[in-house]
Records
---
Amino acid sequence: MLFENLSGKLQETFRRLRGKGKLTEKDVNTALREVRLALLEADVNFKVVKDFVATVKERCLGSEVLESLTPGQMVVKIVNEELTKLMGESVAKLNRADKPPTIVMMVGLQGSGKTTSVAKLANLLKKENHAPLLVAADVYRPAAIKQLQVLGEQLNVPVFQMGQQNPVQIAKAALEQAKKNQHDYVLVDTAGRLHVDEELMAELVQMEKALQPQEILLVVDAMTGQDAVTVAESFKERLGLTGVVLTKLDGDTRGGAALSVRAVTGCPIKYVGLGEKTDAFEPFYPDRMASRILGMGDVLTLIEKAQATFDEQKAKELEKKMRTQQFTLEDFMEQMQQLKQMGPLNQILEMLPGVGGMGRKLKGMQVDEKEFLKIEAIIQSMTKQERLNPAIINSSRRRRIAAGSGTKVQDVNNLLKQFNLMNKMMKQLTKMEKGRFKGRGRFPFM
Amino acid sequence: MSFFGRIKEGLKKTRNIIMNRMDDLFSRKNFDEDFFEELEEILIAADVGIETTLDLVEQLREKIQEEKLKEPDEVLEALKSLILDILGREPVPLLLEHKPTVILVLGVNGVGKTTTIGKLAARFTAVGKKVVLAAGDTFRAAAIEQLEIWANRSQSDLIKHQQGADPSAVIFDGVSAAVARGADALLCDTAGRLHNKANLMAELEKVHRVVDKALAGAPHEVLLVLDATTGQNALAQAKVFNEVAPLTGVVLTKLDGTAKGGIVIAVARQLKVPVKFIGVGEGIDDLQPFDPVEYVEGIFAPRD
């Protein structure tokens, strides 16, 4: 789970600080040692960690903290602020050309996820009623062009390709075509290359010259280790990088590369990739990511996700229902379709505050895509009364529901169990939320 | 280029970066706290990871005391030796002892599974072995086409279904075909999957089961492909994949960049799974057997 371990570690550290009236320099050092280790374990580059810890320490040791009434809170606040600062303070939008088309180049190492990201960005732009053109300029990897074509077909977005010709020529011809066919975005998929490959890096420089792109996005695998810094620096040196796409963030990597890349290039992270499907792509919210590291959840992202899928009214209802736990099997089914569009249920749950720390409990209630169909069938086989009050479902009702939905009694049991688990969790969340809002600015773990 | 030269080339940049500091470090005589701290930093910068690094440095301290090491060279040798204790000193070859030897290739997305299979196939066919490839990545767009190109390049047979087909079925057919055609090796491609996706790991478990059903005792090799640029997450990857399909070896790819791939030391330490191959370039012959001594020498060797 995203940043789970880092947030867990920091929480553990700060729990120890809780209740202390005053912080001694020794306390600060102990806490910051943990912060340092956690960040290093999260693959943040060691130089970045060094700077970070030094900055935080300096601020912590200022009179501001030591004289504060709740020093623990103060340390968290400082770590949070510095993390946010490190990751960039506001959401970075895609640059646009004054006169269309806007040209976007995706560059990066092999296997970082360029082709997939190009398709995902196209999907996003298409949803906003733009007309993107995809350009297959990866002429080296076997079947890379084919891959982009298949993805383009799935999204119903045209793909420009000229086979294995010179990528600079391809880029130029694509630009002509885009102008002719009035595409307002041109997304160029380039071949993966090592930052030390002089020949291929020079090729990118030529492409940049020919295309004059508004955006050159460096695609970085979130799992990258210490080398992320070297890679980002090298690309930045040769090209006018404008931003970063952080991919595979749906893994359980702690994603320290995000911090490193941002710190050494100064380029904002513009998008994150969260899955293999073309809609698993989101803008990057640095401030939210920082609170996420500190275990504060991500209700904002959840709500926004809901808004894109539901209308606003429904999103509010859902949020309210989730908070007040008047969430019946009926709602569960009604929202199934929309939930499906929002992404996997467990992914949505991950965004709720406090759930980050409940990773283990969540594992028991993983819901995969195929399960959705089964669940739908089961709920549809219930009477309205049963849906509103699942407690009345006894064994004979269970058998009937199983027979009606073509499933097994165990499946019905499982669903009910999962539903109860979820409700229980909502209860916990609500408690936590109440606690947080009572003491303004308090963290759930303070 | 010779085998030696290739690894050296691949590791050169790695070495240059590390060595600038190593030379400074080991040219001083007294081993104070700064010395050890800097040593930690060098290992961490190589993605060896906190736990393994702290452990190595701790052991090195003990060794220095016990063996009363005074010379920087002795300390360097002691450190190499500690790392080799973890990696093993002898290369662990991949032998085609069965007919067919079934090799399952796993990993997260984008580490280079398909490319590794292509290069492995080329290695085998070059010495006259008959090789069948099974296109088990039925998920990613054009993955089958990509493997098809490698099959042609390496002159191997390819067993494929449509995109979206059940990977277990493809690989079952692959095993049957490899048996029927009297192949020496069957290389099974699988879709890249993040190890925290329960459903995809369950799918992999099924693939593993089906292979055994199709041919008792198979798969004979389960290779996890790790990207040398990957950080600490590689440990989690190795751990979970190993639970689902017990690994017999690791392939470390993309070692021709500046990444040090130090995470294999942590992986070997935790799982006791040997590294069998390293990828040092994009060419068809850029997959080399992993030689631990050479790897460690390569990292610590004096600059050219």
---
Amino acid sequence: MTQRGAEPSSSDVDAVYVFAVCGTRTPVGVEGLPGVPGGDAVGTLPFGELTAVVQTVRAADFTEEAWQARLSDRQQLERYARAHHHVVSAAAVAGPVVPLPLATLYHDEQRARSALAAETARFRAALERTADHAEWGVKVYSTGSGGADRPDPPSGPAVITGRPAERTSRPAPGAGLAYLERKRGLRAEREQRQDAAIRAAETVDAEFQKVAAAARRLRSHAPELAGDRRVQVLNATYLVAKDRTDELGRLARTLEESTGAQVELSGPWVPYSFVGEG
Amino acid sequence: MDRDIVPWDNPEPLTGPIGVPLVDLLDRVLATGVVVSGDLVIAIADVPLVRLSLHALLSSVSERIPAPWADGGPL
């Protein structure tokens, strides 16, 4: 294939998509996977003592414009993200892998080989750091303190929410003041709830850090993303030694009881969040 | 109810793209891993591309990628 000079947008130009780098010479179980949409079957590309899991794709599917469109189309993005994850996970069955971010591409195998070979030391360090470990996600949701809570929509001017009886009756003397106090009380309650939720999140994080070899905080999901009305107060992820996996479920339950928050554990993940530096 | 634990319920560890919530997946596959500079879609590794389109679907991704609005709060 031509490289460089060729128009990157011409539709017949190929590119090499790299999913992950494996510590072994022969990662089993990845050859022939379908990979990302519109490409050839997944294969391997040895470099030095490591092996990359790669796929030949059409360069035209991976231009910046193509990604702009894809990133604003949830279904499209999901297809690519899941395809990527599927290949990375399959490679990880055979042995430790270093996943690369979605859409790392080279013009051809030669370019891929030399670029990856130049990073051998980083791959080795990452493989070493994550060997015999897996990543576990922990999300904490605030449940409020009492029974009478509802993650009320971020306090809008919610003054006239029904209660026609109350509205139509003549305001009693001092009703304005009572109303203000009620509002103030509600706000104080909400603040207390938020404080409690943040404390719960900190407690959960601290406890999981004791079990983990490394930890990272991720950005919390807005409720509408997860299609879920609960308020997420912690979205963290931990690198945990495989022989400590058993402790996690128990820890999550214990913390639910002691903090009153909901603690959700997910995993094991390929250590996506712990192969980069820092 | 997937309240307390969401095990992937898969005989083989570390597999199981089925059932993984998309937001959790995106937290991990976008801009994580060892970032090596590729030849194409440079901006993905450098994040601006992702960040630009964030408002369309997610406020997640990682803390290294501040969302375009303050606090990551709802729009």
